[in-house]
Amino acid sequence: MTFFNLLINSNNNTHNSYIKLVLAAFLIVVVGSISACSSIEKIRSDSLFEQYCNEEGRVGQFIYERVALGEEFFKPIPTDAKELRRVDEGFYIDNKSVLINKDRFKVSYVVEYWNKTMLSPIGPIYAFESTITRKSDGKTLSKAVSLLNMQGKVRKHLPVYGVTCPSGHDLKRIPLYTGTHDLIKKTFYKQ
After folding, report:
1. Burial class of 104 by CB neighbour count within 10 A (0 to 12, 13 to 18, 19+)
2. What does the pLDDT read at residue 148?
3. Prior bond to 76 cis, omega within 30?
């Protein structure tokens, strides 16, 4: 606060006026430099992010094998409202007409959602990957990859939304970067 008081209060002493002028110029240079660096960083991260998003096979949903599940993998859809609220929505298939038994499913398959990997410290830019793997042979049946550019926003404790790809919406108006990670519905079907 005393720094700003020095700038505001006028004093006839030329030495004090010179100090005020130098401090004001220094402050302007520092603020301008920080602003310029953050703009350059944003431009660099946007360019790199666009490269990653346009790279063939980098983002999107990839179904390597569709799997037919036998009757033992399914359970009846609960009729009780309380039980129905406990059902994991991700285990419905065939337009919510069939429900996979989550416990039985996990014996044979591994589902990993939103594994985060830093692609570049510029931005930073992250890849989020979800996969379904068959335990018996270790084969990846499907995966989905989304990218996130934080554009210099590095807050750790508050949610910060950056730019994502793939961009756009599916037919149900769900953003593609979240909707593409709904792999169970697109990988499995009832035999």
Report:
1. middle
2. 87
3. no
- In the block, which residue shows the tokens 């096979």? 57
Strands, sheet with 74-75, edge to edge from the N-terminal-most edge strand: 74-75, 98-100, 92-93
**Amino acid at site 147:** L
- Report how far Cα 115 is from the mean position of its chain's Cα atoms: 10
> Phi and psi (nearest 5°) for 68?
-90, 125
The residue assigned the tokens 């210099």 is 152
Is it the case that residue 37 has pLDDT exceeding 80? no
Q: Where are the beta strands (DSSP E) in 43-139?
A: 60-63, 67-69, 74-75, 92-93, 98-100, 109-120, 125-134
pLDDT digits (tens, 9 = 90+) for 77-96: 888 888 888 888 889 888 88
Q: What are the distances in angstroms from CA 73 to CA 61, 103, 143, 189?
A: 24, 9, 21, 10
List all residues 6 or more positions away from 191 whose beta carbon is below 8 Å from its beta carbon. 68, 69, 70, 71
Give the pTM.
0.68
Q: What average pLDDT does this structure show over 126-148?
A: 93
